[in-house]
Amino acid sequence: MYLRAVFARRAAWDLTPNELTRRVAERRGRGLPVLDLGESNPTRVGLRAPAEALARALGELARDPATARYEPDPRGPRPAREAIAAYHRSQGAAELTADHVILTAGTSEGYAHLFRVLADPGDFVHLPAPGYGLFEHLAALEGVEAARYPLRAPRAGARWRLDLEVLARTLGPKSRAVLLIHPHNPTGSFVDPEDLAALRALARERGLAIVSDEVFADAPGAPTSVLAGAAEGPLHLVLSGASKPLALPQMKLGWIAAAGPAAARDEALERLEFAADAFLSVSPLLAHMLPALFAARGEIRAELAARVDGNRARLEAALRGVAGAELLPAEAGWAAILRIHGGADEEALALGLLEHEGVLVQPGFLFDLEPPPGYTSGCHLVLGLLLEPEPFARGAGLLARFLAGGSG
Ligand SMILES: Cc1ncc(COP(=O)(O)O)c(C=O)c1O
To answer: Which of 14, 22, 194, 241 is most solvent-facing, going by the fewest CB within 10 Å?
Structure first.
């Protein structure tokens, strides 16, 4: 009784680990190997460029006398914000300056500040499905409700489309913001320019903000950030951070960049600054390194692209001739979706693959992936494309053997 009374309802999480997580822990407990084909942590996969850039930046930081002082700026040190603004300008956000950027302790904190500033408890933010459960948790932690709107898989090509009809029907008087993941994780799809234009019109009409998570946007030949063309409104708030474009999650640095009609943009920035000032959670020491780290962005991006493209090709080669397994095309990101046609159950597949081959992949339901268009059955497995080439190729081979029915 006391336990039910003492805690907030919004913190009543179901903390039971899912079956796959339980079996992984059990396997590791028995000393058996697990080859994690879902690996998405860039610091565990032998990348050279981010590690070298970090070492250089830390060396420079150690010699910088400015580090001896603490002069907090709730928006984050200006040189760091200038480097961030230049990064987004390189993606088409021509008018973005350091004054439109606020640093956060990671992208998740950026979400928290945005939910605090945009929505009161009980208000709604609209999130894409498929998607990732983290965003719902971040909303719930701020007392904000999350509603889902669907993304529709393409029949051909890589570009998933927003179902704006369903979104429009789901919007209500308590709706405050629509979240885009641009490009999306795990589909790797950018938001189509036509969908963006229609969403902007809808958001202006209904008084909503567009929040665009662009952590995976640094793809070669990437379409421009939603910050480009935002001046007509509505209010646009873009999230990114060091964890993906710089492959340095251990920096725990993220940021929010704001654009849109000047009055709304500046008001948003002032309110966000107030929220950031209440915590001052960004270490100026770490933020001080951002300009040096951004200077290495070209090398980091090239190494990431080579790794991801190489592994995608390895996966394609391994799956050639495996009936019913289709690797979905992607425009960007670090993930691959494998569509399995037929009546197989994705959780049973993931559990079987772990047990028979010691290989871990994520079942699609963890990302709300639904059966393919036009089918009532069929399922998905989600992989990461970051592992070193040798273990990745080995894991892809074991996965192909399992799917072809040749293991055990
Ligand atoms: C789309 C997306 N946004 C945000 C994050 C979290 O980023 P951060 O580590 O900067 O908090 C992730 C993590 O994988 C992600 O996939």
So the answer is: 14
**What is the β-pairing status of strands 101-104 and 335-340?**
unpaired
Which residues does ligand 1 sit against, CB inside 6 Å?
Answer: 106-108, 132, 181, 185, 213, 215, 241, 243, 249, 254
pTM score: 0.96
Pocket-testing residue among 44, 134, 256, ligand 1, by greatest number of atoms within 8 A of Cβ = 134
Any residues with CB less than 8 A from the CB of 243 and at least 6 apart, and which? 42, 106, 107, 215, 249, 251, 254
* Pocket mutation for ligand 1, best pick of 179, 244, 250, 253 (most atoms within 8 Å of C-beta): 244
Angle at 159 between CA 154 and CA 165, to 5 degrees: 70
What CA–CA distances, in Å, run from 381 to 31, 48, 251, 330? 25, 29, 30, 15
pLDDT single digits (tens) 198-237: 999 999 999 999 999 999 998 877 778 999 999 999 999 9
Burial class (CB in 10 A: 0-12, 13-18, 19+), 283: middle
